[in-house]
Amino acid sequence: MLLLAAPLAHAFEPTTQKVTDNVYAIIGELDQRSADNQGLNNTTGFIITADGVVLVGSGATAGSAKMLEAAVKSVTDKPIKQVLNIGVQDHHWMGNSHFLAQKIPVSALAKTVASQHEQEPMNRMRLSSAIGGKPEDLQVEYASETFEGDEKTLTIGGVEMSLRYLGDAHFPGDAVLWLPKEKLVFTGDMVFNERMLGVLPEISKVKDWQATFKKMAELKPEHVIAGHGAPSDLATAQKNTGDYLDWLVTEVGKSLEAMEDLGDAVKRLSADDKFSFLKLSKDLHGRSVHQTYLQLEAE
What we know:
The N and C termini lie far apart (45 Å). Helices cover 34% and strands 22% of the residues. Residues 1-10 have low confidence and may be disordered. The strands form two sheets. The protein has an eight-stranded mixed β-sheet. A five-stranded mixed β-sheet has the order 9-10-11-12-13, with helices on one face. It has helices spanning 62-73, 96-100, 110-131, 206-217, 234-257, 262-270, 281-297; strands at 3-5, 15-18, 23-27, 43-49, 52-56, 80-84, 106-109, 145-147, 151-156, 159-164, 176-179, 184-192, 223-228. By secondary structure, the chain is of the alpha/beta class. It has one domain: Ribonuclease Z/Hydroxyacylglutathione hydrolase-like (Metallo-beta-lactamase, Chain A, 4-Layer Sandwich), CATH 3.60.15.10. α4 links the parallel β12 (184-192) and β13.
């Protein structure tokens, strides 16, 4: 696959990777959000159509939105004509203002935008803490066009694509973008490649996420553009995300059935290194076990 570096003034530069003839991924940093990456520690991408470029995700800030813009320009002279929001966490949509200021329409499922509204105070606080600055200084704007229901099919520049809500994932309201001809899916944060996913307190519901992943797999995509890490095939996404979700539900479930208390369960299961090949596992694995225990215990 073709790898390109987007020329930017920042020390951090995302990598642009060709996935199909007309679809590219923009791969952000695998580490946590920072001032240097302007919150762009996720993967987004774009589709080149006859009418221009469709950008999937707008970044976390105006700074990271400019990184995405530069990544597109490193590949094509065609202008960005449309932005689609599929994710609820800040780095998938809080760069909207940069594109709306250029009169570029931003579209999303209404369900996704409703969740963005609900999570906005937390997103604003966490993002500003990560990149530096005051929460009130972040310019937050929502999609200029929303679609009711769980699915909306669009044809832009001759390319058919479908916004779909398959169920809650990393955040409630997370959606995917499915390109049937290309057999390609932009999963947003439903899929984490290369690095470990994180189960967020009161936000990420492990069993829902597990079920949503299985629905995505039923599409039988040949190409998966994850919300974090490099694009892959479905088998790789299964290994990095699906298998880990299954492990959490199964192993923590066994712990509860055995009436193992929270502290002992977290200590024992955190020592399991089956998924230690994933970046950030030392930071996130124990926390995810802890959250999964609390969720399953409450059922």
